[in-house]
Give the backbone structure.
Amino acid sequence: MAVEIKVPVLPESVADATIATWHVKVGDKVSRDQNLVDIETDKVVLEVVAPEDGVIGEIKFAEGETVLAEQVIGLLGEGQAEAAAPAAAPQQNTQQETQQVEGETVEIKVPVLPESVADATIATWHVQAGESVSRDQNLVDIETDKVVLEVVAPEDGVLAEILEDEGATVTAEQVIGQLKAGAAPAAAAPKAEAAPSASEDKGDALSPSVRRALAENGISAEEASSIKGSGVDGRLTKEDVEAYVKTKASAPAAKAPAAPAEVAAVLGDRTQKRVPMTRLRKTIANRLLEAKNSTAMLTTFNEVNMKPIMDIRKKYKDLFEEKHGVRLGFMSFFTKAVTEALKRYPAINASIDGDDIVYHNYFDVSMAVSTPRGLVTPVLRDADQLGLGEIEKGIRELALKGRDGKLTMDDMTGGNFTITNGGVFGSLISTPIINLPQTAILGMHKIQERPMAVNGKVEILPMMYLALSYDHRLVDGKESVGFLVTIKELLEDPTRLILDI
């Protein structure tokens, strides 16, 4: 019986979404909790995972198509028969690979780091020593203060040795591993012959949820190999990991192995764990604390009637997408309104440098983007010179790069003003913190219908609260209120954006 693959429930302020990337194709065998497809909204990317093991029977919507909440986008069927044929191929490949002659040793190095970055941290090794790898396969993630760099295999072979473990601090072009080019995979080694084939399959097919469960509970790859899997072909499931953790927690504390990266404390039936902050999280924490302590931050609020924007979007979204190849969202309107308001209030587009005020005659707008590793603020350059279509494309590109860990230092540096949208997560109102060295930040929130007085009558309108946090050392109350009112007026009468009035 086929199982439906559906779009997740979308935030209230999000009308529809777009199929961003299918990670599988029809006929592929998938395991429970495996990520099948990325669904992109105006601000966040949602993952849709397999509800159970099976085979992709049908994909109803291709990449780039617009979908609605809980819409069926694919079918998952029972796939024992389909899986039998593909299963033979890897065995043939393995036999061919074992006949290859070991080649020379190739060094795996840390990439060249940006000039402003002194060192980096080994974030995640995606392979273990002894595993076969293919050319351009991602081997390890290297994390700097702001971006994550991927180190890929220079050619086919076997990862012979890992010289720097996860959590280690490394420098540019440091050797962190050794690759034997063209060597046979670890399965051909005598040591691996004693291991049951089910465990090999189990290790090679860990789903994202299983990897996440292992990482959250501080279980190393070596320890994970000792856990008995209950899934297809002996694969580990999330439930196997949870059962193992519960059994481990009930055992005497003295028997629990120590993990330097994550320490678990056993307190009867209750447990707690201590996990070191990532470099990105530490940087975010330090910058937010610095902004709070070094600025005279104040927040002013207003609200905007979103009906005019929503009417335009509803009327022209299909034509807009057909012409520009990207969906028409709310962020492009807000970005356009912000750049126009910044022209009228140059102090909000300025920054303080010591005892000087630096006024910028360009308009680079930072966009707060939520990524798996934390909140980052990539920059949309020269936003005042871009049309709505170009703004939407730029925002989408930055969001995808953030999701995939592809943001560069150039993407992250600069920016004169920041826009953040907590509304996609359901936030009704908040006080955003300034993104130093900028002077102000605009917070968008959830669109909610409320009764409003219009010309002496009560109307139900889709309203959004806006919050402007600003540095009172540079911006006076009159300017901040005027700036926010300008944005409100431009959004409630979008014609003003077109006519520049």
Q: What stands out?
A: Residues 80-101, 186-204, 253-261 have pLDDT under 50 and may be disordered. The radius of gyration is 26 Å. The chain is about 30% helix and 30% strand. The longest strand covers residues 457-471.
